[in-house]
Amino acid sequence: MKAFVHEGIQGIAGTYLREHKELDPKENEVRVRMKYAGVNHRDLFVLDRHALTDPPLVIGSDGAGIIELVGTAVSDFKVGDEVIINPSLRWLQKTDAPPVDFEILGLPDDGTLAKKVVISSDNIERKREHLSWEEAGVLSLAALTAYRALFTQAEVNPTDTILLPGIGGGERSRFYYYLLRR
């Protein structure tokens, strides 16, 4: 399957759109055919954190798609269900801080910038009908991070005016341009 993979060279120079192994789900996993995957700033950091000696890594944390295969122990979802991927791996209980074994999809596990993703059924939620694929595809990490920054940390309220700068220049703009021209 096609995937956006990082390997062999630190930074963006080590990323390639290429064929990557397609996996079958284990007993409590599902395979999702991606409809939309978002790119966020975390994906830039991953390019420097992924060790050159580690296996090739599919980057990306945000995404949504349609289940195409379910593991033998999955009973809450079926083939054809439209789902949003929750990239917060192994954080299954409501706690003030993440558990010790917490990770985010896209490092160390393969992420969402691929045709298909295999993930635990604990990390998917049904896509609500009112959400477009674009909205669903960035809701889990990028949109919730923005929400938390605005409403939890900055304590913005409905009467506040918020000014948002454009993408601007620098490394982030080069990354978006690189992804768009591929």
Report the total helices.
Answer: 3
Which secondary-structure class do the elements indicate? alpha+beta
Report the uncertain regions: 167-182
CATH class: Alpha Beta
CATH architecture: Alpha-Beta Complex
Cα(first) to Cα(last) distance is 16 Å
Please list the strands of the largest sheet in the order they lie side by side.
9-3-5-6-10
| Largest pleated sheet | 5 strands, antiparallel
What percentage of the residues does DSSP assign to strands (E)?
Answer: 15-25%
Assign the CATH topology.
Quinone Oxidoreductase, Chain A, domain 1
Supply the CATH superfamily name. Medium-chain alcohol dehydrogenases, catalytic domain
Shape: globular
Topology readout:
Layout: E1 2-6, E2 15-19, E3 29-36, H1 42-49, E4 57-58, E5 64-70, E6 82-85, E7 88-89, E8 103-104, E9 116-120, E10 124-126, H2 133-153, H3 171-181
Antiparallel strand pairs: 1-2, 1-4, 3-5, 3-9, 5-6, 6-10, 7-8
Domain Alcohol dehydrogenase-like N-terminal: 27-124
InterPro entries: ADH-like_N, GroES-like_sf, Zinc_ADH-like
Protein name: Alcohol dehydrogenase catalytic domain-containing protein
